[in-house]
Amino acid sequence: MESIGVLMACPMNPYLEQELDKRFTLHRFWKVPEKSTFLTTHCNSIRAVVGNASSGADAQMIEALPKLEIVASFSVGLDKIDLAKCKEKGIRVTNTPDVLTEDVADLAIGLMLAVLRKLCESDRYVRSGKWKKGSYMLTTKFTGKRVGIIGLGRIGMAIAKRAEAFSCPISYHSRTEKTETKYKYYPSVVELAANCDILVVACSLTEETRHIVNRKVIDALGAKGVLINIGRGPHVDEPELVSALVERRIGGAGLDVFEHEPEVPEELFGLDNVVLLPHVGSGTVETRKAMADLVLGNLEAHFMNKPLLTPVV
Amino acid sequence: MAAEDQSQTSQSDLPYVLILKPPPSFVLFGDHFFHSPNFQYLKAYESPLPLPHFLHTHAQSVQALLSSGGAPVTADTIRLLPRLGLVVTTSQGLNHIDLSECRRRGIAVAGAGTIFSADCADSAVGLLIDVLRKISAANRYVKQGLWSSQGIYPLGYKLGGKHVGIVGLGSIGTEVAKRLEPFGCSISYNSRSKKPLVPYTFYPNVVELAANCDALIICCALTDETHHLISKEALLALGKDGVIINIARGPIIDEKELVHCLVKGEIRGAGLDVFEHEPDVPVELFALDNVVMSPHNAVFTRESFDDLCKLVVGNLEAFFSNEPLLTPVALDDLPHFSGRKD
């Protein structure tokens, strides 16, 4: 398989990179100085693209690679891949579902606890030496708070299951009501936001869900409400969120994703009720290895004409 | 005439509740939340008299005492209060009260019951996720603007599938276990005695527990037996991939050894709400990204504070009207507490 050209969109995982290097002719797109020349030169040898949450295969890329057969994403999210174009051209697409569900859900709960219980601020407080001068920090109890989930897929359900152990009443909004669950369904995100204490974004990013958390939703969530985003940055109208936080119109936020990663609005840096993470939802040693193995497994299966492990298209 | 009589009856006839030092909640929120028309507080800390003199002066009027971690109730104090019938504490811990002396004198003790269990458990789980997933460290990284300049943050460690060892399976330990189960953790524990109806694996000693788990969570009381329970041996048994979370009492862990293990990488990380000599914290910890610390505030939520006010007032009112206490501490099966200060 060494003559098969694989284009890796950006750095994502040293182990994955190493393995791709061993098994294929790997082209590291981020190291290419003249990208369009490169594509013209290599377009007939590149048969696979490996992308991730930041960089995938848009229409332009797909058009530039006439021999492209498969796009294997090192992520569960598919928003960086032009799925319609892939379908049109018969290009297979795979992602990494299930293996990262637990880590993302764990992080969502971790962010809820960090924001409500001011864990990061408490740590900062101790490190600053302020504790010696007296005072304590007053925080908000997490147990029993109403958790509203946007998107009750694998990750949304995993978050619900965890929050239930903290006696949190669960409600959700989804494209369709999931009658097999006992959680309360709200037909609109605004209603969901108005009826929960913690709103968490756990749906996939599509045309429909872009800015699903907008000014109206933020207003409905209110001054005591907390927003947790472990989905995609564009799920939230970021400037609206920033002004709501700066003006204390909502109670706090825990954000793992942003509209223009790795850029993060600096107005948020000084807010003690905001926790900011550098898109680490699936960022554990164990899970990234499992994700890499899935990408490798899918590629291998494809080039050996075997059924794909986790096909999307 | 009748109205005047009533107002004159008010203050001076109300029974006294002695306070040696204001509890943290008095200082933080104000003592008016703890007021009742049925008793009044006698604040030793507001008197110019030295304490023994103050106690001697008021000895005959004091039937109840409101205590907290920073105001220990020692045998000496108890002996100066011949009419003492009740000690109420605002804290979860009881290690600052000489329970044996209370039992000997027939003095009832009212604790926090289980009002703090949820918050303590939430703290423990929060700290565990924070340490494994590097939440506080990564938050610092982003807020310093390093994500755009320095790029990808180092990977954390998965919580799912980890073996969690709970030291002390009381009310708090049970709440911790309950919360960690849906995360896919397998739970084991060490306690004074095996709990018959519990689905978790029991280990007869803490070193064996540590050797068989990836994360140790300290949820037990501080007693003479549990002082430095987490020794160098236990920490080494926990090992390089092990994490320790302490939301109980600092002296349960040999802090010098803990710091040494963290600095040398003998354990993976720690989440600590309590320390041996609060508010002093070993400075070596400040340089470590794999340590998350909080200023002994695991129970300081608005909600728990509301519950605490109601409970303290409720216990005192029950005592003064000869009704059963809301949260009496059983004094018959006591571990050894020598009334040592927190």
Query: Percent of residues of chain A in beta strands?
Result: 15-25%
Q: Element order, helices and strands of chain A? A: EHEHEHEHEHHEHEEHEHEHEEH
For the termini of chain A, the CA-CA separation is 23 Å
Can you summarize the main beta sheet of chain A?
Answer: 7 strands, parallel
- Biggest sheet statistics of chain B: 7 strands, parallel
Helix and strand content put the structural class of chain B at: alpha/beta
How much β-strand is present in the residues of chain B?
Answer: 5-15%
InterPro entries (chain B): D-isomer_2-hydroxyacid_DH (IPR050223), D-isomer_2_OHA_DH_cat_dom (IPR006139), D-isomer_DH_NAD-bd (IPR006140), NAD(P)-bd_dom_sf (IPR036291)
Domain D-isomer specific 2-hydroxyacid dehydrogenase NAD-binding (chain B): 125-298
Pfam family, one (chain B): 2-Hacid_dh
Family (chain B): Belongs to the D-isomer specific 2-hydroxyacid dehydrogenase family.
Chart the SSEs and their pairings:
The complex is a heterodimer of chains A (313) and B (342).
Chain A: E1 5-8, H1 14-23, E2 25-28, H2 35-42, E3 46-52, H3 59-64, E4 70-74, H4 83-89, E5 92-94, H5 101-116, H6 119-127, E6 147-150, H7 154-164, E7 170-173, E8 184-185, H8 189-194, E9 198-201, H9 215-221, E10 226-229, H10 238-246, E11 252-255, E12 274-276, H11 285-303
Helix pairs in contact in A: 1-11, 5-7
Chain B: H1 2-13, E1 16-19, H2 24-29, E2 40-43, H3 51-58, E3 62-67, H4 75-79, E4 86-89, H5 99-105, E5 108-110, H6 117-133, H7 135-143, H8 146-150, E6 163-167, H9 171-180, E7 186-190, E8 201-202, H10 206-211, E9 215-218, H11 232-238, E10 243-246, H12 255-264, E11 269-272, E12 291-293, H13 302-320
Parallel strand pairs in B: 1-2, 1-3, 3-4, 4-5, 6-7, 6-9, 7-8, 9-10, 10-11, 11-12
InterPro entries (chain B): D-isomer_2-hydroxyacid_DH, D-isomer_2_OHA_DH_cat_dom, D-isomer_DH_NAD-bd, NAD(P)-bd_dom_sf
Keywords (chain B): Oxidoreductase
Pfam families (chain B): 2-Hacid_dh, 2-Hacid_dh_C
